[in-house]
């Protein structure tokens, strides 16, 4: 934070006048409570910490009156934590973690049967996925404005979209993309939330079939594209039957944005590797970064989704994997997809509030390019094309589509908009700055330094048609010198900046200890209609009354062929019925309703030692399944979340022993332990065939700053040489920028879909030997992300 010597001087003067206060206090940590003179105490604290007047004003600006209203609620992607973090502005206080994909025992997500059913929607071809890498949250919109009903977010690693209900801030639906192996350009909503846009990043075979990894096959069979997930507002869910995908060449489609106003009916998606480079550093070819940056230009994809909708409705799409797909040839014929050159390897594409201007920027060009939708539409209408790509897609003339370019600084990435006409903010990743500029008059207005390596940024409602400006948050990747040390896994840093005046002003630093959070969206809290408690008997997965909800006095235990069914009620005081007798080996379904009605009535229900639990906010009805694997007595725990004392009305589950079941269970446990040991021995073995060239690792070493990239692994149908490992895959060294992973900072290494939920942290210059089991054949991107 800047500290002017002038303000320091002012403070010295003021402190001189109140000299008595200083004399009372030591140089460090003056105690506020003990000081009878609050003003003196304040000044003493400022002096001892070296705070300027600016610092003190910033501190007060972010300190709401206790219990006072917050202006905005922000939803931030939790990155590899596979969650959404909700925090408020201007205090920057974290108020909730919303689980998205990973099990979360604080909320019971993935523990009760209702949320398990939601989690199961996220399986990909039968492979359960228990994590995600969330990137881009979005609020539902009506006429281009946030309406406070729903939020969406994408999982970049395993291509999925999540739907969150804003009444209770919980995940309600997971939609696994039927075609892609990854996504990045999602979730971006169209102005009436007609669709949630999801662009693929790493090309894949659309039918998921295996093809050899050679350029010819790549060009012919690998595809990228953009999925339009149809949102049914009435149902509050994505209607997969009415969703469709427009295929695009394997150019690595990146971020997207929906057109609005002037550009309503269109969507925009960047691409970052029109070279169609497939890697192969071990064969003496250039590393990915170089291979994908050979050409000066990549292509912005402009989709006419209104027309595409009609083409699908007319039955012209092809059904692939149960999903309507528009092949490139059809897109060419129907004039649905256009390309416009953009400076190489762009990242963010952001549409202005009136929809007329489209701002594109990327780390390899110091300029932002501003395209004009009026000109684009004229070019499309006049069929004024400069060229066609190898797939026959029309390419618009770059100069003719451009409004202009502005030199913003090093590494411009993402853009947000202000309430004031023409004013935008762009993150400068390399300069570690936010630049305020005028995208109409094409000039820079102000710059603000941040700490450090800013990725996204967000202004209040800054991607909607009703941007507020006022505050801006720099979403920084690094936290050098900002927070207390916590070991090698550093937090990231969200810095709150005031943008009310002509110049920007830093207000607050907030550490976010998660994987790599990306984008954030902030909504006026007055727009939200959050519920304090659930209506009695609500199943949160449907937000309707559960058919299993009961009232006090209706508790009962039923027995069936498949096990025991307990209809129970919970209160802060405990569970009814309090005693449940079963036989070892039986499954007990606890259908429980929390009868509490006041906001502090959340309880946790669990069965000690049997890995069964969920969390019940007031009014919730949910089902906890308990497989009683062991004999004996088990406590039915009810913990009132607002109360330090254990509920006196805890229950007991008694299980009579079953010798036959017990024998079988012991055998199963022993077999599972033996399998784990075998796998560990297999991973530790040194007899794998080495596949690594010295030249390749040398090249990666000399690469100054690896920034992430991807390799393509070929999972062949040949049987594995070792149980549990496809040898070839397991020994492919990973990149970025080369074929050996030499990360300058902690990185997450993981494979996508078929290997399932594999995720591993790779420390600086470390070597890992992940052992993947390829569950089926195909071509699978290996992701390496460097926060
Ligand atoms: Cu939006 Cu982080 Cu996915 Cu740029 S990406 S930072």
Cα Rg: 28 Å
List all distinct small molecules, including ions and cofactors, that are bound in this structure: sulfanyl-(tricuprio-$l^{4}-sulfanyl)copper
For the sheet with most strands, the description reads: 8 strands, mixed
- Would you report the number of β strands? 50
Instruction: Indicate the mean pLDDT.
Output: 85
Terminal Cα separation, in Å? 23 Å
- Which class of secondary structure composition applies to the elements? alpha+beta
Shape: globular
From the structure provided, what is the oligomeric state, counting identical versus distinct chains? Answer: single chain
How many helical elements? Answer: 14
Show unreliable segments: 1-27, 691-776
Please state roughly what percent of the residues sit in beta strands, choosing from under 5%, 5-15%, 15-25%, 25-35%, 35-45% or over 45%.
35-45%
Task: Tell me about this structure.
The structure is a single chain. The chain starts with a helix and ends with a strand. The protein is built from 14 helices and 50 strands. Helix 1 packs antiparallel against helix 3. Strands 8, 9, 10, 11, 12, 13, 17 and 18 form an eight-stranded mixed β-sheet that branches. The chain is globular and about 80 Å long. By secondary structure, the chain is of the alpha+beta class. Bound molecules: sulfanyl-(tricuprio-$l^{4}-sulfanyl)copper (K7E). The site of sulfanyl-(tricuprio-$l^{4}-sulfanyl)copper (K7E) has 11 residues, from strand 26 and strand 30.
